[in-house]
Amino acid sequence: MNSKIISTPYFEVSQSVGTFYSCVISAQELLEICKFDFRQIKENGGVKQFLGIQRPLNDSRVREIRRFIGTVDASFPTSLVISVDERCARISEETGKKKLVLEPYIDNETGKKIVPFDQIATIIDGQHRLKAFEGTDHNWILPVNVFVGVDEGTQAMLFSKVNLAQTKVNKSLVYDLFSLDKGRSPEKTCHELVVNLNDMKKSPFKGKIKRLGSATDGVFGETLSQATVVKGLLPLITKDALGDRDIGKRGGSFPDRGSNDFERRIFYPFFKDKEDHRILATMINYYSAVAARWPTAWVNTGRGAVLAKTNGFNGTIRFLRDAYLELTSQPEVPSIEDFSAILARVKLVDQDFTTEKFPPGSSGASQLYAELKKSLPSQKTN
C-alpha cells in the first residue's frame, strides 16, 4: 500500500494534441511530485545533447512572485501544466465519483519503488509560479492540467506553444486595467495621470499618447504609448509598486519615507497625501517648458524625430527629477518659468533631436539625459 498518493476529482479534456485531465492540487503537493526539467547542454563523446524543456529559473522572478503571493489580491487563475508518468496515474471510482490518482510506481514482484513520489511528474508550464511556494507557509489549491504518458518531444512542443505561440499581453492594456482597481495604487495613479495628460487642453501631451498601446482611430500624431509614460512616472512615485499597491488594497496608510526617499521619488509625498493633481501640474509645467524650449522638435512626428517619442520621453522624464531637486527640496509644484530657466542652460537646439544624435534604444535615452544633465553641474549623474 502506498503511503503517499494524490487523489483529486477531474474533468477530462480532449483536444487535437490528445487528452488531459483538468483538476486542482495543492501547491505543496505539487512541489513534492514535480521535477523542474531545465534545458541544458551536455557533451557526450563530442556530441552535444540538448536535455530538458524548461528555461533555467529566474531567481528574481521567483522572488517577485513569492512577494505577490503574500498580497491581499493575489491569485493564479490560469492552470499549471504537468506531465505524469503513465505508470503513476490511474482512474479510481469511489461512491460513483471518478478521481485521478497519482502515486509512486512500485514493482509488484520485487516491491521495489521504481518511480518514487518525488519523481512522478515533470512541470511543463508554471515553474516560476510553483517554485515561489517553496519554503513558504502558503498552500494554495492550484488549477492544474495533467498530461499522462506523453513523451519528451510532446512536452517540449506543449511548452513552446504555451510560452511562445500565445499573443503577448499589451502592457498599455495592463496599465489601463488598473483603472478598475478599487484600492489606491501607484499604477492606478499613473493611469489616471496619463488619461489627463492626453485629454487636457493645456497639456503638452494632448493627443500624443496611444491609449492601450495602439493608435486611436482618426487621431494623428500619437507618438508615445501609455506604457512608456507610466513606466517613466512609476520610479518617481515608488520603489515598490507591488508593496504600495497592497497597502492601498488593504486600506492602509502610506508611511512617511523621509528626505532620502524624496530625493529618489519626488512624487511619493504627493501620492501619499492623495494629491495626484500636484503630480499632474508638475508634469504639465515641466513638459510645457520642454515644448517651449524646443517647439519644432516637440511637434515633429516624422521619421527620425526623437523628442516627443519614446527615447525623448525616457531621457526627459529621467531629467525631471534632477531639475526638480535643483529648484526645491520640498514637495511643491515648480512653475513653467522655473523649469524654463533650467532648460535655457541646455545647449541642444531643435535640430539635435534626431535618431542620428540619439539612436533608438536605451543608449540614446541615456545620451539625451547626459546632455540635459550638463546644465546642472551641482548634481552627479544618476
TrEMBL record:
Lineage: Bacteria, Pseudomonadati, Pseudomonadota, Alphaproteobacteria, Rhodobacterales
Record-given protein name: DGQHR domain-containing protein
Organism: Sulfitobacter pontiacus
InterPro entries named among the record's database cross-references: DGQHR-contain_dom (IPR017601), DNA_S_mod_DndB (IPR017642)
Lineage top rank: taxon: Bacteria
